[in-house]
Design goal:
By secondary structure, the protein is α+β, with helices and mostly antiparallel strands. It contains 11 helices and 24 strands. This is Ca-activated chloride channel family protein.
């Protein structure tokens, strides 16, 4: 059976000015498919995917009727993609959740006969009722198996506002779903709120996307199911352990999509937090970590440990470890140097913040602020050669050859809200490099307790007396 091997790389400029308080690092995680065991080509195993398709059938899906018709076609197309043996279900979402397939309890098993039956049920779906996305997600949670080896996935489609439950109710349900399954959220029409989709996708390690025309939905559903089928590892977490003089300021996924994971951390102890990233296949993702650090003393020009980063796969820590270092210095040349990986990521984040600020302004009727924000986004994206952002901006503004930016006349709400969601997508400029594990060199034994740099033959930290293990982490205090 194929498995995923992970490797890590950290990009940062470890030098901070003597009064510096923020350390930024970009961590790349690359998963590669490998054959398990003897290295022989793997034979297909039983399908591990368990899929729940959640379709908004509220009354607004009938206005216009092309939306519900597109949803039916897209759901049928997704069912056709499911290979034999995959467990699946279809949920009708209104002000409550109703499992329309399979007819009995639990999940159905994909086969030629069951796919035909499921599509026949989907063809009879009609629009009517309200919207309560929390109840839809709770239904998916209860249907999906609680098995360590299962790849649990939900595809949720909506066209409306989550008006039949409170934000607190949705948050409560999301909290019970984190780590149980990945949810890809999709929007259609012009009546939904981008933040609802992003909120669900971020909490549940999925993606948020939308279509401008109902006809595009079918291809999008097929692509989403194929991506779910490519996942091999169900549960991957990133563990960040800080030193006493540091804490996590924020933690974001920045490629292939921007998602702020800061508020979804699991605190292990006072200095350790874990972030769930969902299921993985052969892919690469990047994460932006900001550490808030305080110089513990007046020592300058010493490499010190700021944080240790580990991968936790199926509850077990992998041997690959990356270190984030900090070195306070009065050398302004060193501290002003920009790491290319970090600057590119922060540049893309700035572009997307400007796009979203413009979308928010346009939505509340402030055309002047929208124009200013989108003009800034065009300037930033052009400078960064961010073609993905420019593609979304061209739906919102006209960009003259001379650089003049003008709002498009008769701009539709669909273009505004779709651009808001789709602007979160990012990409890699070049193929993933061979990852390198950036660790302290043999000459720098960094204490995991206080961050002090000790000689390579030191057994105990020269600063705090903690015992140094093979990786420089603190053990018991020496006497």
């Amino acid at each position: 059976m194929d498995v995923v091997e992970f490797s890590l790389e950290v990009n940062q400029n470890r030098y901070l000015p003597a009064d510096g308080r923020e350390m930024h690092a970009v961590r790349s995680v690359t998963g590669r498919r490998t054959a398990d065991g003897d290295g022989q080509p793997s034979r297909p195993g039983p399908p591990r995917l368990a899929e729940v398709l959640v379709i908004d059938c509220s009354g607004s899906m009938a206005d216009p009727p092309t939306k519900i018709a597109a949803a039916v076609r897209a759901t049928s197309a997704a069912i056709d993609v499911l290979p034999d043996g995959v467990r699946f279900a279809v949920v009708e979402g209104t002000e409550r959740a109703r499992v329309v397939y399979p007819p009995g309890a639990g999940l159905g098993i994909a086969s030629a006969a069951s796919r035909k039956q499921a599509k026949a049920v989907v063809a009879r779906l009609s629009a009517g009722g309200g919207t309560a996305m929390g109840s839809w997600l709770a239904a998916a949670r209860d249907l999906l198996p609680d098995e360590p080896s299962a790849i649990c996935h939900t595809l949720l489609l909506t066209d409306g506002i989550n008006q039949h439950e409170t934000p607190q109710e949705l948050d409560r349900v999301l909290g019970t779903c984190v780590g149980r399954f990945v949810c890809d959220a999709r929007g259609i029409g012009d009546g939904w709120r981008p933040r609802d989709l992003v909120r669900i996708a971020t909490a549940l390690s999925g993606t948020a996307e939308a279509v401008r025309r109902p006809a595009e939905l079918e291809a999008g559903f097929r692509a989403t199911i194929r991506a779910a089928l490519a996942k091999l590892q169900p549960d991957v977490r990133i563990r960040v352990r800080t030193v006493p003089y540091g804490r996590v300021g924020f933690f974001k996924q920045v490629r292939p999509a921007i998602m702020d994971l800061t508020d979804h951390a699991d605190r292990i102890d006072d200095r350790t937090v874990e972030f769930t990233t969902g299921s993985w296949g052969a892919e690469r993702r990047e994460f932006h970590l900001r550490l808030d650090v305080t110089p513990p003393d007046g020592i300058l020009d010493e490499d010190r440990l700021a944080a240790q980063i580990d991968l936790v796969v199926e509850g077990k820590s992998r041997p690959a470890t990356a270190a984030v270092l900090v070195n306070w210095t009065e050398d302004l040349v060193k501290s002003a140097r920009l790491d290319p990986g970090v600057s590119q990521v922060t540049g893309q984040e700035e572009v997307r913040q400007a796009i979203n600020a413009g979308c928010d302004a346009y939505d509340r009727g402030d055309r002047i602020e929208a124009h200013a924000q989108w003009t800034r986004a065009v300037e930033l994206a052009t400078k960064a050669k961010d073609e993905g952002a420019l593609e979304q901006l061209r739906y919102l503004v006209q960009i003259d050859p001379g650089g003049l930016v003008r709002l498009k006349p008769n701009l539709s709400r669909t273009d505004v809200i779709v651009s808001s969601v789709m602007s979160s997508r990012t990409w890699f400029d070049d193929p993933p490099p061979v990852p390198q594990q950036h660790q302290p060199t043999e000459a720098d034994r960094l204490c995991g307790q206080c961050g002090w740099s000790s000689p390579p033959d030191a057994v105990y930290c020269e600063q705090c007396g903690a015992e140094l293990d093979a990786t420089g982490a603190a053990g018991r205090v020496g006497t």
